[in-house]
Design a protein that fits this description.
Chain lengths: 113, 114
């Protein structure tokens, strides 16, 4: 059974800093991994989907890396802004098409203006 | 940009009552899901639905739960006899190619069982 751990659980940094969020998972037989953002009282927004064959995926100021064999992924946020404040969740996908995602508890990020 | 929409945003019900949570997935998506999040806990998978049938369900999705796609646009989750521990945020999600493509989530229905 897939288990997902995210470190740190919470992070508060001043605006402008570059930061790294970590995700580890126990079952490395995955097809891909998604990073999501969740704002308070809202649903999840998919930020990046990185395939198992990829090492990195970039979208704007976000960069996700994946080391499938060691069961790790990182989300790098460049030049953080107050609007980046949210909870960030990672979810590796192990199934055969319709199976559900397994989520970590997330990293609660606060960017101080 | 197309969105997944969920109604109602908040539902309060008494223990033992039936509730139906409604979702309109993105129109060209083929895979549909329900997830739940108990306050302060992880987002948990409940059920996936493809080709008009359940593809997979978790241990949480017991006989009290059922899903239906009654027409070409709606996707519903029914809880037959609610318990206090069913209180949670319920999220509907849809995707083009199951877990192989980004999942799009609705804003959720907060269910409070009293």
């Amino acid at each position: 059974k897939q288990e997902v751990t995210q470190i740190p659980a919470a992070l508060s940094v001043p605006e402008g800093e570059n930061l790294v969020l970590n995700c580890s998972f126990t079952d490395s037989a995955i097809y891909n991994l998604q990073w999501f953002r969740q704002d308070p009282g809202k649903g999840l927004t998919s930020l990046l989907l990185i395939q198992s064959s990829q090492r990195e995926q970039t979208s704007g100021r976000l960069n996700a890396s994946l080391d499938k064999s060691s069961g790790r992924s990182t989300l790098y946020i460049a030049a953080s802004q107050p609007g980046d404040s949210a909870t960030y969740l990672c979810a590796p996908y192990s199934g055969g098409g319709a199976d559900g995602l397994t989520f970590g508890k997330g990293t609660h990020l606060i960017i101080q203006p | 940009e197309p969105e997944v929409t969920q109604t109602p945003s908040h539902q309060v019900t008494q223990m033992g009552q039936e509730v139906i949570l409604r979702c309109v997935p993105i129109s060209n998506h083929l895979y549909f899901y329900w997830y739940r999040q108990i306050l302060g806990q992880k987002v948990e998978f409940l059920v996936s639905f493809y080709n008009n049938e359940i593809s997979e369900k978790s241990e949480i999705f017991d006989d009290q739960f059922s899903v239906e796609r009654p027409d070409g646009s709606n996707f519903t989750l029914k809880i037959r006899s609610t318990k206090l521990e069913d209180s949670a945020m319920y999220f509907c999600a849809s995707g083009r190619a199951g877990g192989m493509s980004p999942l799009h989530f609705g804003n959720g229905t907060r269910l409070t069982v009293t």
